[in-house]
Amino acid sequence: MSKYQVDRVVVGSLSTNCYFLVCEETKKGAIIDPGAYPSQIWRKVEEMGFDVAVVINTHGHGDHVEENKYIVERSGAPLMIHQDDLSMLSVGMTDVVDDGKNHKILKDSDIIEIGQLKAEVIHTPGHTPGGICLKCENLLFTGDTLFNLSVGRTDLPGGDYKALMKSIHEKILPLDDNLIVLPGHGPHSELGYEKNHNPYLRR
Ligand SMILES: [Zn+2]
Ligand SMILES: [Zn+2]
Predict the structure, then answer these.
(1) Could you read off the pLDDT of 128-170 as tens digits, one per residue?
(2) What is the distance in A from the centroid of ligand 1 to the CA of 144?
């Protein structure tokens, strides 16, 4: 198991979790969902002392992407988002992702390298068409797909409850119980605990 550091800052009016995942060996890291408060986000980068290798959006909602531009310009790192949420970005940011280099448009099963860490992209449509979870070591970043004892809402444009349930049942439930669930809002959890207690996960 590669050594990592993980931390978060809670940003914006919807209390979105912006995560930092850093490879201890190389001090390269990812910023996941820079949704607001860019100076707080950058302060955390400096505190943790890492080079930003990549900026990743779990999906295209504003509370997860709003400060992409600031963070991408300041870090020079590529921005990655699933192809089915690309159109949710503002026009300037769509160009940043879709410039034909570095496979920045994500699809299911892609591997994102963060120093020596490898994060696997799991496409979990439902909350949005291009929502993803990211699995790295014993961590599972679930965006707004799965929360501690809840799931993402599906009443917003592009939301689809049946698709969300299918994503969770087919792609998340088969994963290891010991994974630590790091959702886009609220406290973390453990996947085994969610399988047993989350009311939306009962078959
Ligand atoms: Zn969302
Ligand atoms: Zn959100």
Answers:
(1) 999 999 999 999 999 999 999 999 999 999 999 999 999 999 9
(2) 5
Q: What is the DSSP string of 191-202?
A: HHHHHHH-GGG-
- What the chain holds in terms of domains, given with CATH numbers, is 4-201 (3.60.15.10)
Q: How far is the CA of 10 from the centre of ligand 2 (A)?
A: 11
DSSP output for 76-133: ---EEEEGGGGGGS-HHHHHHH-SSSTT-EE-TT-EEEETTEEEEEEE-TTSSTT-EE
Q: Which ligand is nearest to the CA of 130?
A: 1
d(CA 27, CA 182): 21
Residue ranges of E strands in 67-116: 79-82, 105-106, 111-114
User: Which of the ligands is closest to the CA of residue 59?
Assistant: 1
pTM of this structure: 0.96
Shortest-distance ligand to the CA of residue 16:
2
Residues, CB within 5 angstroms of ligand 2 (ion) = 63, 144, 184
Phi first, then psi, for residue 163 (nearest 5°) are -65, -40
Q: Say how many Å lie between the CA of residue 143 and the centre of ligand 1.
A: 7
